[in-house]
Amino acid sequence: QVQLVESGGGLVQAGGSLRLSCAASGSIFSINGMGWYRQASGKQRELVAGITSGGSTNYADSVKGRFTISRDNAKNTVYLQMTSLKPEDTDVYYCKARIAGTSHYWREDDYWGQGTQVTVSS
Fold first, then answer.
1. What is the mean pLDDT of the chain?
2. pLDDT by residue (tens digit) across 70-86?
3. In a 10 Å sphere around its CB, with 0-12 CB exposed, 13-18 middle and 19+ buried, how is residue 88 labelled?
């Protein structure tokens, strides 16, 4: 079994910062891409930032220059440093990882975290 556990969400004033973490655990053979998504109630989940196993990153235009994604491969953890937060960044944030489990190392599956609420007040 593989689990993703997120932490770091909360309430912050506009202009403030938050750091999200997402740790993968369980029977993991390898982790490929990891990423952060966000979803508002009634809306489609959208990509915020992604990072490959080699460290290449990509960002949604709305967060470029404000958010930074990183990962610690030794800890199977991905981070999202969020700065200059705006009220429109308020959402539930989910991490996703493409993982090959030890029982099926030849196949990668997408795993999701449970989501963490980020609320930015104006």
1. 96
2. 999 999 999 999 999 99
3. exposed
Q: Which residue has the tokens 């009220």?
A: 87
Distance CA 117, CA 65 (A): 22
Site of tokens 């960044």:
89
Say what the pLDDT of residue 41 is: 84
What are the CA-CA distances from residue 98 to residues 16, 18, 27, 35, 53 (Å)?
30, 24, 13, 9, 10
pLDDT at 22 over 90: yes
43 DSSP β-pair partners: none
Which H or E run includes 18? strand 18-26
What distance lies between CA 6 and its chain's CA centroid?
8
